Amino acid sequence: MSGERELTAKGLATRERIVEYAAAVTRERGAANTRMECVRVAANVSNSQLFHYFPQGKAEMMIAVARYESRTILADQDARLRTTRTWRAWDEWAEALLGHYDENGSRCGLAALLGQLDQDAPEIREVLAGLLESWEQAIAAGIRSMQSARKISPDLDADTTAGTIVTGILGGIVQMTVTGSTNRLRATVRASIATLKAARQ
Question: Which CATH superfamily is domain 4-198 in?
Answer without folding.
Answer: Tetracycline Repressor, domain 2 (1.10.357.10)
